[in-house]
Design brief:
The chain is α+β, with helices and mostly antiparallel strands and 195 residues long. It has 3 helices and 8 strands. The chain has helices at residues 66-77, 128-131, 144-149, and strands at 15-17, 51-52, 92-97, 109-118, 124-127, 135-138, 158-163, 185-194. Strands 1, 2, 3, 4, 5, 6, 7 and 8 form an 8-stranded antiparallel sheet that branches. The longest helix has 12 residues, at 66-77.
């Protein structure tokens, strides 16, 4: 089953605007290619330690379902399809599906399925779905739009982030990523577990 999500404008049911100021331009480091350009390190010289994984035995949910059951529900939901949309100047967070498990806190390590497109053309540049398994990564090792926009999300949820360039890759996207300088990025993230 494939669920089609078309993002229009910056609002809608369940949408909330999150405004964050950034005192620096986010620049991706070379380790971004480990799993894809969307999960690049944000600031600093240390590469994000990111691995592809299945959710077997990982994480727990406050409802007792655990990572395997949550992953099964997410996979049944299927890979989202994202469309082109307007550029934004602030982070826009929309919960497409409200989760019921553990809640993400700043600095947590999470396991998630995701797909990312440029807002301008809707063309996919990165997807854990396309690689066949969710990814595990620390929130303090990704672009600011992710580290800010995923806080408060619950396991089993699906959240769409519309990220302005200043909270993504700014004018310096990773070489070969297909991301244009100054691009607004759109990601839909399905949270498997808080690890």
């Amino acid at each position: 089953m494939v669920v089609q999500v078309e993002i229009e404008g910056t609002g809608g049911p369940g949408a909330r605007r999150v405004v964050r100021s950034s005192g620096r331009l986010v620049v991706a480091v070379a380790a971004v290619a480990v799993i894809g350009f969307a999960l690049g390190a944000c600031g600093g010289e240390d590469a994000a330690q990111v691995t592809s994984t299945t959710a077997s035995g990982q994480g727990s949910s406050t409802d007792g379902s655990g990572g395997d059951e949550v992953l099964a529900q997410i996979e049944e939901r299927g890979k989202p399809e994202l469309a082109a949309q307007d550029e934004v100047t602030e982070l826009v967070v929309t919960d497409e599906v409200e989760g019921t498990g553990a809640e993400v806190q700043a600095g947590d390590t999470i396991t998630a399925h995701y797909v990312g497109v440029q807002a301008a053309d809707g063309v996919e540049f990165d997807s854990s779905w396309s690689r066949g398994s969710p990814a595990t990564f620390p929130l303090d090792g990704v672009i600011q739009g992710w580290s800010q926009g995923l806080v408060g999300m619950k396991e089993g949820g699906r959240r769409t982030l519309v990220i302005p360039a200043e909270l993504a890759y700014g004018q310096s996207p990773p070489p070969g990523s297909g991301i244009a300088p100054g691009a607004t990025l759109v990601f839909t993230v399905d949270l498997v577990s808080v690890d």
